[in-house]
Amino acid sequence: MAAKRDLSNSAHSKESTSGSEPGHERAPINPWMEALQTIGLSIVLAFGVRTFVAEARYIPSGSMLPTLEINDRLVIDKVSYRFKTPSRGDIVVFHPPAAAGAQFSHEAFIKRVIGLPDEVIEIKDGKVYADGVALTEPYTEAPPDYTWGPKTVPSGSYLMLGDNRNNSDDGHVWGFLPSDRIIGRATIRFWPLDRLAYLADPSYGD
Description:
The chain is α+β, with helices and mostly antiparallel strands. 19% of the residues lie in helices and 27% in strands. The chain has helices spanning 2-15, 31-52, 171-174, and strands at residues 54-58, 73-77, 91-94, 109-115, 120-124, 127-130, 133-134, 148-152, 157-161, 177-178, 182-191, 197-198.
């Protein structure tokens, strides 16, 4: 049995590309080159994940207070909306429409989905109405002190509002957001650690 094992090992060594035969020794691996290859692969994988799957974002302003605070770090899911449409209450990262101003053309905003396609939205008396029904919104900083609408949300578009209604450059200023401007949905706040949380969808009772 021992001889059989030795034969098997010998045959394997001759047929493999391990470089064990005389005159066919493999060149030593350059550790710097190996490190560069590893780093390069990591960068490619990270780029692919960030482009197609998920990315991290931080909050630069108070427009989403009290839900999101300045410098909160979030995970943005970039896959879900390939299979389903946004729902009311989703917190979404997007590129603003042209009406927001040329200075914001390469920026990313974060707001909450409030108005859905084909709904009639009106803001009055400190409340948001969707098709005539007042929305219950416990996540807002304060009731809006402005009036807006009634306006019909175009098909394939959404009305995006900040939770800090009276301090947010959002849809009540620049109008509706076409769905092709959406980057992804905020799902998890991972920093600071004492505020680590899944950003659950609110219930509107519908």
